[in-house]
Amino acid sequence: MKVGTKFAAACVAGAVASLMSGAALAANLVIVTNQGAVPSLKEMAAAFSRTSGNTVTVLTDEVLEQRLNAGTVDLVSQNPGPMDELVKSGKVLANTVTPFQLAELGVAVKAGTRKPDIRTAEAYKAALLQAKSIGYSRGCSGTNIGAGIAQLGLTDTLKAKTIFTTNGTVTDYLKRGEFELGLQQTNIMEGVPGIDFVGPVPAPLNKACQSNVAVATNSKVQDAARAMIAFMISPQAAPLIKKTHAEPYPR
After folding, report:
1. Could you give the angle at which helices 222-232 and 5-20 cross, rounded to 10 degrees?
2. Among 75, 156, 168, 237, which is least packed, fewest CB within 10 Å?
């Protein structure tokens, strides 16, 4: 789906200026997101709240469907595929869909355990083969990790020792020792207590996950929601995204 590039430009030019001039009324905004964008969204929500006077709450997407139906969510953050489905179902406004973040894939282990060499594709392949168990999610990062494993010709080989996460992040499973190597987005694993981040998945196997944001169709504070999107793609938000080990979507 073609993202809202014109909308993004208009937001930066208008909505942020409106907020700074005090023209926008304070609102209580609710953002529902998947795991991959939680760290940066929390940073940006806090900064936007200080700047605009709005209150911004970030929730994970376990509550998305009921909140969309009840009209109690204002912004939705998802990867492109799920966002396309929300557009098709009329749950979000198509002309507000805006990419804001890219997060690369990484490898982590439980703190204090051996860190494998993953500096090259061949070393990464050897690390996957040598590990007693590996784990990753079924979301965007899991899809891209699985594609990389397939590219290495290891899908069938690794199947018996692969664990898919069902509740919580990969780091939660690593802390409990439920698998040896954890694979997920770098921004969810790097800097987590109890975890040693090994490094990024090597090129050309490292396909970043894109996060988009859009205004919920039933939001009662759509102007404030649009202003939040404007902030998320502004120069002021870029260092907040980088602070969480992700990258702003290039403009």
Report:
1. 100
2. 156
